[in-house]
Protein 1
Amino acid sequence: MTAPTVAHPAELGRARLRKEDARLVTGQTNWTDNIVLPGMLHMAFLRSPHAHAKITRVDVGPARNQPGVIAAFSGADFGDGQGSLPCAWPVTPDIVIPAHPPMATDEVRYVGEAVAVVVARNRYEAADALEAIEVDYEPLPPVLDIRTALDEDSPKVHEAGNKSFVWPFGNGDIEAAFSGAPVVLERTYRQQRLIPCAMEPRAVVAASTGDEVTVWSATQIPHVLRVMLALVTGIPEQDIRVIAPDVGGGFGSKLQVTAEEVLAVLITRKLGRPVKWTESRSEGNMTVHHGRDQWQRIRIAADSDGRIRGLDVDLLADMGAYLMLVTPGVPLLGAFMFNAIYKMDAYAFKCTGVFTTKMPTDAYRGAGRPEATFAIERTMDELANELGLDPLELRERNWIKHEEFPYTTIAGLTYDSGNYEAATAKAKELFRYDELRQEQAERNARNDPVRLGIGISTFTEMCGLAPSRVLGSLSYGAGGWESASIRMLPTGKVEVVTGSSAHGQGHETAWSQIVADQLGVPFEDIRVLHGDTQVAPKGMDTYGSRSLAVGGMALVGACDKVIEKAKVIAAGMIEAAADDLEWTPGRFSVRGDPEKSVTIGEIALAAFAAHNLPDGVEPSLDSDHTYDPENFSFPHGTHLCATEVDTETGMVTIRSYVAVDDVGKVVNPLIVEGQVHGGIAQGIAQALYEEAVYDDAGNLVTSTLADYLVPSAADLPSYVTSRTESPSGNRLGVKGVGEAGTIASTPAVVNAIVDALRPLGVPDVTMPCTPERVWRAIQTAQAADGQQSGGVA
Amino acid sequence: MTQITVTVDGASYVDNVEPRMLLVHYLREVVGKTGTPIGCDTSNCGACTVLMDGVSVKSCSVLAVQADGSDITTIEGLANGEWHPLQRAFHEEHALQCGYCTPGMIIAAADLLRDNPHPTEQEIRDGLEGNLCRCTGYENIVRAVKRAAEAGVKP
């Protein structure tokens, strides 16, 4: 029997203040950089100043004589023993996955690639000694533009060439959809390169004791890291323990197996002393994997009433110099999302992964879905403009109606629930859409130098990564399940072990709420443990908005098993037949005789004492569960953005921003709202502020936070948020919310800017839409307009 | 090495430090005040903000020797028996997620409220411009500072 979920949950939907906060607001945190071990040494890396060069000589000898230096190594000192950093997602059988030694030995392929390391008594001495290392390079030409990298005469990043893979995908007769279509539009969009910039820089501490190695790392993925460290270094997996202590944000950037982690393990084994490395921000901007970086060509065919016939997407995706953990898979996640919430007859997708001499790209908040959502939502606005339709009207004509769920899309995913009409209606009302359109018309009519623009994004995304079978069909190297354990303590308190390792998401609070409802124990009596492979031995970790939809369901499964076990013991305690017992959260009682009952705490104590258990009953309620989802979950929503665009300066100001999100059932509305806020901010940052810029020689120009504009409170608006609720198909009805805001907001902002400037003839503005770019777009449009009308530009 | 005398969160320390040692490294690695984290190396992020003689400074931009004779308050010394109103407000408004920027953000907000006990939303946003947060989108940080101001924060 499966216990029913709680009929009237006390915790689900409750705005509990977070358990995590007590240590975070008082400075009692345990960041990796705080860790100090006896005899611990500090590492500093010498990094390539060239985008592409042969290494002809490395001499670390002079560094070894510097004060406080214990050791110094070049790549050659590690030899084959350093292995190759892993790529877990070989997306095609013929994909090119170049060797990626953690420390370069004969060639460097991006600025910042490690070429030597100093190990010293403290971080100052380690940094000082780097200057004594001698390296000779023979520069090679950089490869910086994926649009020309596949040309025959392009310099090569790797001997095998600059193409990593071509991944085609599609459904329906795309030629028929386009031939004879009354409207065909083609657009090209640029997804600029972004730097994730989690506030906590990466850090790693490694210590070896006998055969065992313990690694503390500011990572999102302690479990994946453990497996990968074993595979890369050859150290048996059972001898490796990975701990992710308090981790200060990730956004995908800590979903990685890094060179520094591997080298820390190798060095602590060589020296027999603990070692630590903490990156500086400038080092991090260069060498934490970057996000996005695509050129997107998108063609859409439609009938004259706006009904979409077909969509054809051709992506060039910049892999950077190497394939890291999921580098090639990121753009492919977008393949399932270009069709978004819309129905169509045919869809074709192709992605070409291209090598350049830049930092590798990999997952960054949204990972493939923001890129796809941007392109389709920009294109829907373009199509609406072409047809003279209100862009919301065009969307409504094409989206899946609420009564059509479950609906299998042209990309083959089955959306289990959704209500785009409801979310959009609510957003329009909160935004005062019709009033703003009216104001816009008036201001356009009087040629207001500050234009009002209205931007729309009716988005969906896929969360709950992921059904293992689907990952297998996409050639991913692992499953998508999640693990949970419930440990019932003799005093009636509960330890919850989760394989989903949090780094700001609030699992300790939300997981307590879920378990409190399932077991009927007080929220305060629950402690959530995570992030240490010895405490939480199984897990797939935290990324892709998977924790609640997958990890949360694992909790429910583990609670079911606790209740099953408790029932047998309760029957013995009450002296009743198990079949006569009924469970209300917190206690078993005899059906029809509620006076005869025992609480889950009493049962836990009885199991612990084990004096009078029925014959053959295991003296424990503790239970594990591993949950593999049957489907993804599909959050959706309607985001509306109003921008004021000063046509004389190019300055864009967000006047109002309304987000209505449907993330299914909500465990903790405070946490959900916070995720939406932060997500929107990161999407706005892509639209207006951020870009990783390499110069013509392949130097990263935006290597500090003085050059890479992470927005402050002064750069961002206030957000109006609301929700609709279409429960997903899992028992909790939850979907996931970690990336929704980021996926939705970028196109909403850019659509608003283009909407403001369309009357001036501006067809597009390339991100980030800085004042200079907006101003130039206006000047270019006016010059073209002047030429067309015979005037002087 | 230079000898300095510094009061940190109410306790007095006499230490010999390298003249180039940053105050934040002194606090973290010599005094053991790891509640103050480091987020960048160009004084942009504000994670390391502490109060020096009652005024907020980015402790990555101050040398330990410059703090000689000073009274430093870090996030660890802000609570006085019970949480400071800003600590409480950050908790109650869910103004933190990963919490890495939080010590600096709270200290900067304390200084902001000392200057301007009743700031408008825009004044809060402008006043915290030197402190970056990557998680919250600042919405709840602004609400928390407003809430603490309404509660009447005393510096």
Note: Chain B has five helices and five strands.
Protein 2
Amino acid sequence: MNDRRSSSDLGSSAEATLAAFPFPERDWERDARAIEARLGSGLRGSTDAALLAAPLPSEADEPSALSATATPLTNSGVRTQSLAELARRSVEKKQATERQMARESLALAALAAQQRPKSPPSEALPTPANVNGVAAASGGVANQVAANSTVRNNAAAAPAKPFPKVALALPALALAAAALLWFRHPTPDPAPLVSNEPTTATAVAPSAPTANAVAHNEPTPTENAPHGIDPNTLPDQDTPASNAEASKAPAVATAVAKAGTSKPQTKPNQAAANPGSDLPPDPALRPADSRGGELPAKPTTGAVQAALGSVMSGARHCVAGDEAPSRAVVVFGSDGRVQQVTVSGAAAGKSSASCIEAQLSRARVQPFAASSFSVNATVRPE
Amino acid sequence: MSKRTDRELVDAAREGDSEAFGTLVRRHQQRIYRLALHLLRDAAEAEDATQETFVRAYGALDRFDGRSEAFTWIYRIAVNLSLNVIRARKPNRKAVPADDPRLEGVLVETRAGSASPLGDSENRELGRVLCEGMDALSDTLRTTLILVGVDGLSHAQAGEVLGCPEGTVAWRVHEARKKLKVFLVERGFAPQGEEGAA
């Protein structure tokens, strides 16, 4: 984090210079009259459409994910959909995929739990027909795993007889488990839409892991089992079936844990007893990154720019009509909220100063370790 | 009388109110000129580009549908015109003139005793190196940095001007700053202490 900050900070003098290049001295009225003199009636509609198009090519090393989200422009140069809409769609799509995968995986995990060796195999194991019935209902990614499970069932319990109660209970159990997972699914953190690090922007929509990919991971049932299911009820690693196939049920549980929760280290019992109790009460106080609450010493330049940029438009409205720019010192507290705004320059002492204070006070950055952080901002008239 | 918004001025100009467009010109010409000056580094070319920007904007008023801010729409025309000038002259001219008009503005401001940070010779030198560093950037990075860093547009507004997402603007600004910092350090302007962390 500090590396990122230091990689783009120019230093206070250079930053101040960059932000305070003055308007050159000119006879602006003469220039305006010269422009007015050129405005003839025949000009209307004569402007080349190319001048209204997006002006610049992408950088050679510009992240493609950022460029790929560029939205089409109308003739007037307006994006037809916002970045927020794209992010929202991406998150919704991801959540839907994860929920679907969780449902399918839980159905299979519940099936596997019914196959514990405590009961006689002929009673405990459902028939392949039952397994296939549930798997068919699940569909999608689960089909591959269900097929494997069917093969194992065929090998381990060839003489199995029909067990309709289990078949009836399985969908109910799966639905209950899915509902539990659904309600425990944390609301996605309000990830910043704008960041000065490209990877954070592309991380909004990571591709959902497929069951096949996850199944190759080494399963750790006690840590990764889905909440609400006792890992002990899952099949042992040394069941008569082959070890490779026997590991698929915990692997499914791993997929569920990864898809259904953002905190895989949480113990299942603790999480079930106190859902969400390990989260800070206020989402704004939650660290923006997912690296375990290690706060940066200070907010990054990009974060501060983004925070101030999001409220600067409102602040500019406050000084509309002023000739000279106003300056403000914005002090952020360690919780990322604005503690104090001090206005100087043209707006100082006027009612527009309190307006600027109110607008800039809406800025938010991620929490940081230092007690406070101040930054200078220039509010130029519209 | 309350001040008319850009949108109202555009609507009035569309109806043939040339005075309304004149108001729009006076409201935004300084920023457009400064933008063109930083892009073109030539006062005469910047003046021409500014005039041309408003003339072309007037010619395209019927195509402004009001879903973006008028000034970002005008900015886009200014950027396009400036880039056209740069592309036309690239084979012949790359060096920055000795009397860089951007620095001239800085010196005028300093002599007037304003709050400009360039209060001494070292800072004036910093301004010169800063301009050189910006000139060394690609057109894409330089234009984005000028819009955000110099002119103070938000990422969203710069995205409207450049026709790209806010995330792309943020990435470009970060890249531009990173390269600018390397340029400054190589010339002995190591970043000083961070701003006022308590």
Note: Strands of chain A lie at 326-333, 338-345, 372-379.
